[in-house]
Amino acid sequence: MSSFFLACAVLGGGILLLQLVASVIGLGHDAHHELHGVHLAEEGLNLFSVRALAAGVAFFGVGGLAGMSTPLRALLAIPAALALGGAAMVGVAYATRAILRLEDDGSLRVENAIGTTGSVYLSIPPARTGLGKIHVQVQSRLVEYQAVTSHSEPLPTGAPVLVVDVIDSDTVDVVPDPITLKTEVVDVVH
């Protein structure tokens, strides 16, 4: 049984060592492939990544060897191996998630404002004759943008608006929020 635990420790440790060497020489990109586009850093732990599994196998072997060195041998070896292996998998998954959160690009992209609703901060002149300002939530932040509208009426301060286009890096095109307009029409009818 000791040779089984030793094989697990060597196999898991060897895979971890190969990954370390590969990342040092520029070949280790599995963490990027595991998480980019899916944002697992926000969705949960990836316990089945190569790193987490390799760490689990390595520490399963180490825990088993430690248990085999006690007088209780196999009686203690299996629970120790399972506990250390599981803890290593979870620990590596947490560490990977934390590291990848640091890589997340927090740049505010004005394009992400399209389709969001906000409110007029400084009234917006009609028919693109001037600029006003709006407040809108983009990427979980309250942002202020300059705004124009093609609408025939001016949009007063406090009016709900929908962002329909981006003019430049700090200017958006808005229209009155159609959902709010429908609600107002229903309230007037009733």
Radius of gyration: 28 Å
Number of helices: 6
How are helices and strands ordered from N to C? HHHHHEEEEEH
> What percentage of amino acids are in beta strands?
15-25%
Largest sheet geometry: 5 strands, mixed, barrel
Number of strands: 5
Instruction: Count structural domains.
Output: 2
Assembly state here? single chain
Measured distance between first and last alpha carbons: 79 Å
- Mean pLDDT, to the nearest integer, reads 86
* Helix content percent band: 40-55%
Cα shape: rod-shaped
Strand order of the largest sheet: 1-2-3-5-4
Poorly predicted residue ranges:
30-42, 185-189
Q: What class do helices, strands and sheet pairing give?
A: alpha+beta
Structure description:
- The chain is of the alpha+beta class and about 190 residues long.
- The protein has 2 domains: about 1-105, no CATH class; about 110-175, OB fold (Dihydrolipoamide Acetyltransferase, E2P) (Beta Barrel), CATH 2.40.50.140.
- About 50% of the residues lie in helices and about 20% in strands.
- The chain has 6 helices and 5 strands, in the order H-H-H-H-H-E-E-E-E-E-H.
- The chain has a 5-stranded mixed beta barrel with strand order 1-2-3-5-4.
- Helix 1 (about 1-25) packs antiparallel against helix 4 and helix 4 runs antiparallel to helix 5.
- The termini are far apart.
List the helices and strands and how they pair.
Layout lengths: L1 H23 L5 H6 L4 H4 L6 H19 L5 H30 L13 E6 L9 E7 L2 E9 L10 E9 L2 E6 L1 H12 L1
Parallel strand pairs: 3-5
Antiparallel strand pairs: 1-2, 1-4, 2-3, 4-5
